[in-house]
Design a protein that fits this description.
- The chain is mostly helical and about 230 residues long.
- It is built from seven helices and two strands, in the order ααααββααα.
- The chain has one domain.
- It is globular and about 55 Å long.
- It starts with a helix and ends in a 20-residue tail after the last helix.
């Protein structure tokens, strides 16, 4: 094995192992968000904010929406995550505006593309666009797609009283991005990607494995006429 192959193997091993460590850090912050790490709320929030900010997760934004997910788990309209399409939505989708999309759900290449998209883009899409959330899960009414972000303090996902905490989440993310930029400027963007970016992608992978698959390719969980029976 030459030096190039050895370095590549070492970087791959590092990325995988560091991804496991960072996933553990993510879970620790998750417990902080639930108030399960410490008996003191401020301790939970400080540690959760620092840990999630390091992983580019808006801690307080996630904390608020995640708490509502647990409150309304399985609700077809109020759950903030993992809400599938209704029967009508599922069967009326069209590819290119012509072909019923559900006919392709079991095509291997379509399944592969959806799986890769879910593992890489599922979590960022939820944070950026609130995808898979229930139609009435937002705390404010807004039809603008850009007002569904976990990063915006005036987002319809949150109450006005929560804006200051959304800003605190953004401060943590800006601090991490500044450190990453500083590191890239000193050791190079490629090295920074290998040190931070690859483990970050592994964290996305493990989050995707531990959560339900994207609702984009799933059949309906319940017909539309039972949506309001909760």
């Amino acid at each position: 094995m030459d030096n190039a192959a050895g370095r590549a193997a070492a970087w791959c091993l590092y990325g995988f192992l560091q991804g496991l460590v960072c996933t553990g850090l993510w879970i620790l912050a998750h417990e902080c968000g639930h108030g399960a790490f410490s008996s003191y709320r401020r301790v939970n929030d400080c540690i959760g904010w620092a840990a999630h900010s390091f992983l580019l997760v808006p801690y307080f934004s996630w904390k608020f929406s995640h708490a509502r997910h647990h409150r309304f788990t399985g609700h077809m309209e109020l759950d903030t995550a993992f809400v599938p399409r209704t029967r009508i939505e599922y069967f009326t989708r069209r590819m290119l505006g012509l072909i019923p999309a559900h006919l392709f759900d079991d095509v291997p290449v379509v399944t592969l593309v959806r799986l890769v998209a879910h593992q890489l883009l599922g979590w960022p899409s939820y944070l950026l666009f609130n995808v898979s959330a229930g139609a009435h899960s937002r705390q404010q009414q807004s039809s603008d797609w850009w007002r569904r972000s976990h990063f915006e303090s005036t987002s319809a996902v949150f109450r006005p009283s929560e804006r200051i905490y959304i800003l605190l989440s953004d401060v943590g993310l800006l601090a991490t991005c500044s450190l990453l930029y500083w590191g890239a400027s000193h050791i190079g963007s490629v090295n920074m990607f290998l040190l931070y970016g690859v483990p970050y992608l592994w964290v996305h992978h493990w989050l995707g494995v531990s959560t339900p698959p994207s609702t984009a390719g799933r059949g309906p969980r319940a017909p539309s006429d039972v949506k309001r029976q909760y």
